[in-house]
Each structure stands twice: as C-alpha cells, then as structure tokens.
Amino acid sequence: MEKDFKITATEGLHARPIALLVNAVMPFEAEVQLTYKDKSVNMKSIVGVLSQGVAPGSIVKISANGPDAEPLMQAVSEIMSTKGIGEEC
Fold first, then answer.
1. Positions marked active-site
2. What's the pTM value of the predicted model, to 2 decimals?
3. 20 to 30 A Cα–Cα from 23, which one of 37, 70, 76, 79?
4. Could you tell me which residue ranges the HPr domain spans (predicted)?
5. Beta-carbon contacts of residue 64 (< 8 Å; ≥ 6 apart)
C-alpha cells in the first residue's frame, strides 16, 4: 500500500514534523518506507528521514507493507493533514 504526499510545511520535513510522523508509525508492525528522489529510508528512523532533506513543495511516496498497513497509512494521512505537514496527491 502506498500514497504520495506533497509537503506543504514551509520548512519542508524538518525535525519536529518528522518526529510526529515517526511517533505515529512506531506502534505499527508494518514496515514503512519514505521515498524521495529515488532514495528510500525506514520511516521509523528520525535520522533516516532527516537525511532525505525533503524541501517544501516536494512529493514523497510513503509505502507500508504488513498486517496493519492500512491503519498505519490512515495515521500518516491524518498527521500530515492535521499538522500542516503535507497533503495527499
């Protein structure tokens, strides 16, 4: 299961929104990846996501695979929209 998001936060993906996203996905069993510019990282790793250097207006792909992938993606979508981080494409 995967979704694309356009990053709308004026600072892009920096420490605070990344921490919100990582904390949202940690309780889930599913593996979750964030892909930006053809490079994928484990979305459960703050350092991994930070290393992507995602700028405002960028499109990222979030993919989840596992028994609870669907609720994980719902949690990501909710955090993205309610915290002003990004919007689904």
1. 14
2. 0.94
3. 37
4. 1-88
5. 1, 2, 28, 30, 31, 32, 33, 72, 73, 76
